[in-house]
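User: What would this chain look like folded?
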Amino acid sequence: MNATGPRRRWWPRSVRARTALAAASAAAVILVGIGWWVHHDVYRESTQIAEGQAQAQFRALVDQVEEGVVPVRRSTVPYEVVATDRRGAVAYGGGMEEFDPGTRHVLPAPPKAELPAPPDDESSGWGYTTIPTRMPARPDSEPGDRFGKDGGTYLVMYHDVRADELSSDRVAALGVAADAQLRVYVVVLPHAAEDIAETITEATDRLLLRAGLVSLVLIAAVAYFAVRIALRPVEAIRVLTASVTASDPRERVTVPATGHEITALATTINTTLQRLDNAAAQQRRFVADAAHELRSPLTTLLASLEVALAYPERTDWPAAVTTASRQTRRLHALAEDLLLLARLDTRTPMAGRDTVDLAALASRLTEQYPLTEGGLTLTCDSTAPAPAHGNPDECERLLRNLIDNAARHAAHRIQITVRNQDGWVDLTVHDDGPGVPTEDAERIFERFVRLDDARSRDHGGTGLGLAIARDLAHRHRGTLTLTPRTLGACFQLRLPQAPTPAEE
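Assistant: Here's the prediction, encoded as structure tokens.
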């Protein structure tokens, strides 16, 4: 397999640079869109200006013809004046000479005028007609000509003037018959609109380009420094959290008073650091308690063995061996409990489908449990099977720990009750001992916690039984709590009820 190194990416790593680049890219897209719109809008306006200029020139030509004046050839727009029954054009200019219309007009002549003339419609006012017209091809065209070699199709405006409505002097000046009809043509060249548009758009494009480049630089700079200022609290949080260690997570970050996302981040980090601090403190307390619990049996065992070795002839060896065996069993039990707690801390809740009948399990443990205390009775009250999802061995360990705890504190009686209630299996272990103060109802489930009265009466307990029992209950998606009672202590275990085979 060929080893491949890390690919180089053009995208910057810095959040500030990324934000500035993203803002500049978005602004560039917007500015390009605005430039495109302005360019096309300027072109449209230029076309309208060119058409307006052509229309103004057209009206001036019509006025000259109606006044009997032959227009001059010099014109900014191509035009031609033709008449009925006349081979050549009355007047032309503005580039129409490229077609050599002196002998024959280029644009079609109008039909003869109607006689008599139709009445004028004063409400309609002056008007003209616009039609697209195909210009003839010219084999001798030159590059500078307004019209191409193939002529092309152009927009043409025209207006008809009746000669019989003019005076005889004006008709004679125009050189047409008295009954002729004249038609004034003006060709709207797209080159004129393009020339105007090119002149305007070049200036506009240069202005937009300069403004766009300046805007992109300003937007990128503003975005860069705005993000830099916004990320200052994040940098402060990073510096503080970098100094946090697992053994001393006491540092806390400053929560900004602005109420934005950085505030939520700082609050979350402080909460996380507090959890780490609590976990570290709990771990230190657990290690200290474990060392303390291990020291007591080890000290007793070591002292017993050293005395026996120092005075072998006066040692009661059976008693010494009994003491060593008892302390070794205590160490073994403590080690087993510590290993079990370590496994429970790293395991997920139960997801299996094993079923345990808690009623049958409680009855069996009641019959098999060895009661060493004189006069102590253990009874079980169950009315029906109580199936629950769980591991049989872990459920037995849980219930045995509860019974062990009750046996160490009970005066005369321990009562186990098992009931099915609303989809849950309720199991209670009630003893008639001194009970637990209300303020210690949760503390007794902590590891290595034993109340003063329990320590004076405890015979070999490790202080981990109730902690293991609660962890096993949580692992089986249940709860273990201490319920208030007038006499003694009552522990209530609740596990989800499993369906019976008939219900499945």
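The two ends are 53 Å apart (CA to CA). If you want, I can go into more detail on any region.
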